[in-house]
Structure formats: C-alpha cells, structure tokens
Write a structure and sequence with these properties.
By secondary structure, the chain is of the alpha+beta class. It contains four helices and 17 strands. A hairpin with a 5-residue loop joins strand 4 and strand 5.
C-alpha cells in the first residue's frame, strides 16, 4: 500500500513524498511549531487571516479557515502550498511551505483581530485582504452511484482502506481494472490499480493533496444479490512492488504490461469519477488540479 501526500502530482505520476504530517511538528531550527485552524497570536487570541490576500502585482494568497493556503502568481497559476502555523520563538504567525519548512510569509498582530502587516519574506511585498471567497470545507462524502455491484463493493472497501480524512476534504477513487475473473462466485478476483485520491476545495477547483495506491488483486464473493470483499492482495512499497506485481500476474505478460503502462486509463478514470461526484452532488466545481500542473477542466 503506497500512501502519499501530494506536494506534486505530475501527469506521469511523478510523486514527491512529503514527510510533513498533520498536527504538531517541528521546524528546522527546532522551535516548536503548532498547526492552527485560524492562526493565533502569542496570547492565544485569534487573528482572522482566512480569505484572499493580494499584493500590487496581483499575486494572491488564498488562506482557508482550516489553515491551509495556496499562492497564485499574476497569471492565476498555483505556485506554492502550505499550512499556517504559529511560531512560539518570536511570537509571530508564520506560514511554512511543504516539505522543507521554509518561512515564506510573516504576519504580526496587535493581539486582536487586527493584522499589523502580512508580508512575503522572499520579496518583501505587503499583501492586503480582498473580498472574501467561499472556501467551504463542507464537501459531501463520495459514494458510488453506478449500477455495477462489484465496483460498488470495491469502491467502499478501497475508501475504507485508503482514505484519511485528516489529510483532505474528500476522497474520490480512480480504479483502473485490468482483469476480472468471475469463474468462482466464492472467489471473484479483480486485478488492477485501485487509486484513492484526496482533494481539498478552493473556490471552484478540487486540489489534489494526498492519496493511496492499492495495486493488486481484490477477492470478492457473492452475498445474495450483492457482493462483498473477502480479502485483498496489494503490492508492497519500494523494491518489493515489482516482485509482488510479477507474482500477481503469474507469467501473464499482457497483464504485466498493463500494470506498467496504465497512465492513460488512470487519467480517464480519475476525470470520470470526479465529474460523476460533482454532477451527483450538484457542486459548483469546474476543474481539478495537482500542485504545479495545469488545471484539468471537467467539461
């Protein structure tokens, strides 16, 4: 099982893994840093920084109420991501970027809701708050709405195994099925790569931020008119991955080739499942995007 936090997810699935987790962590200089829902000052009082901030060159910073942020350049392209944290060492509110803990921005307050200044530590430019945008965290959970009862069972199982809701607002599966063997109703074998991808919402965009890759064989049995997952054989991480995949393919070169070249099928499955989720729930979401990559329009 390959779990990851998406700092960058390329179209070629070049995943950059982040060692930074949720909750409490330590910065490079070992000063204690605590993640906050809306950044607080030294006295524990709230400084309202959620919303959209902009400098004179139209560079924007979008800060959500859960402390996550994205930065955009003047061409409205995402350039950085991170989480707002409070730095106890100098009683300032600092934003850190994944994954190296670099201090990108500094905010000082006067101990109330007022912000003294919000500046970029890279450019020295000051950011001012603009009209607030709606970055709601109230996304409905994904549910399978198709008619394939085997896929329904697989989807529910993979969400249970791969979704960590401390890392994302919603998780949406993107299964890539290579082979289905229904010759034994007590051991139906479905072979493929069962992606479970997490997204945060920013305005009308789902932003990829975490996920799990489950590659291998899922075993199901028929239970009345429905199906249930009995067990699963998923490839291990690292150097063991290829060994396990070869074992699952059992000399079937065509199947092995599908595991090695599934990118196009993955992209199609991902887009279809996101669009189904958006349409089913009537959401005002028009695209999805991975950090550093061009947004993908749903229509």
């Amino acid at each position: 099982m390959n779990k990851f936090k998406c700092v960058a997810v390329a179209c070629s699935l070049a995943l950059v893994l982040s060692a930074t987790g949720c909750g409490k962590s330590k910065s490079k200089n070992t000063n204690t840093v605590e993640m906050v829902s809306t950044a607080t000052n030294a006295d524990g009082e709230y400084a309202s920084i959620a919303g959209t901030w902009e400098d004179d060159n139209l560079n924007k910073i979008v800060i959500r109420s859960d402390g996550k942020f994205l930065t955009y350049n003047g061409n409205n392209e995402v350039t950085e991501e991170g989480i707002c944290v409070y730095d106890e060492s100098d009683k300032k509110i600092i934003n850190f970027a994944y994954p190296n803990g670099e201090k990108l921005y500094t905010i000082e307050t006067d101990g109330t809701e007022n912000i003294n200044f919000f500046k970029s530590n890279k450019t020295g430019r000051t950011f001012n708050k603009t009209a607030s945008a709606d970055y709601s965290l109230e996304l409905p959970a994904y549910t399978y709405t198709g008619s394939d009862k085997i896929m329904k069972a697989i989807t529910e199982y993979c969400l249970k195994e791969g979704a960590d809701y401390t890392l994302a607002d919603v998780f949406i599966p993107a299964p890539v099925i290579f082979k289905t063997d229904e010759s034994d109703s007590n051991d139906i074998k479905v072979t493929g790569i069962f992606w479970v991808l997490g997204y945060d919402i920013y305005a009308d965009t789902l932003y990829g931020c975490s996920g799990t890759k489950l590659a291998g064989i899922i075993h199901l049995k028929q239970n009345g008119s429905d199906y249930e997952v009995v067990s699963a054989d998923f490839a291990r991480d690292g150097a063991d991955y290829d060994t396990d995949i070869q074992k699952y393919c059992d000399g079937d070169q065509e199947l092995l080739d599908k595991f090695a070249d599934s990118q196009e099928d993955f992209e199609a499955s991902r887009k279809a499942e996101i669009k189904s989720y958006v349409d089913t729930n009537g959401l005002n979401i028009t695209k999805y995007q991975d950090f550093g990559w061009t947004p993908v329009e749903l229509n």
